[in-house]
Amino acid sequence: MSPNVTVTVEDKIATISLTDVDRMNALSSATISALISAFEAAHHDNDIWVVVLRAEGDRGFCVGRDLREVRANDLSHPGTADSLPMHGLERNLFEVIVECAKPVIAAIFGHTLGGGAELALAADIRIAADNLSIGFPEVTRGFGANFASVVLPRIVPLGVANDLLFTGRRIGASEAAAVHLVNRVVPPAALDRAARDYAETLRSNAPLTIRRYKAMGTRAQGLPLAAALRLDAPPNPYLSEDRREGIAAFLEKRAPEWAAR
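^ that's the sequence the OP posted. Answer follows.
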């Protein structure tokens, strides 16, 4: 694990924190690798039911790729595969988050730019502080925002996605909420608590059902309706112990005790 990424687990909620405050949590290769390891671990750990992705500091969630590192790499190894979309660590980072079986909540604030904005896009739920400034400045740097160019139009209307990608402009929390780029907006001081409260709400619900919802929602996109309805992505909650527990708890007027089995 990189010193720029920390992980804590409490009550089945994993909190993954970016901690490189001095660099506004820029994505170095070491940070990217640590994030991949953290999300892979959360994916495979059955005692983790929800993931919160957050950042330390008060200036920004993440300003994207560490351009100093990119420039140094370009000078020493020009034209390497790491600079191309769908190659190297950066490809894996966003895909690992999307493919994590557990729901991922991103708590974003301040400067959330480029790869940092793409981190937010990879999450399932985005809770924003009202000081958010989110954007995709790759067009002003000669990059391609490969992940955002595919995923952003699936979250916001195509015209809005084109505007943000073509201009590289930043938008605030109110505009992001208006176009459904973020799910809710809170004051900066309340951001961590809001993300934790949301995570606790998800933790109280049937974990296999939430994992099924995430898998179906992710894999069914673009499929014809008949094919999507028959996708049957795992896990299957219909045959689970939790389904029987949910029925029993309802009939007995008590809170269910989920087992994720």
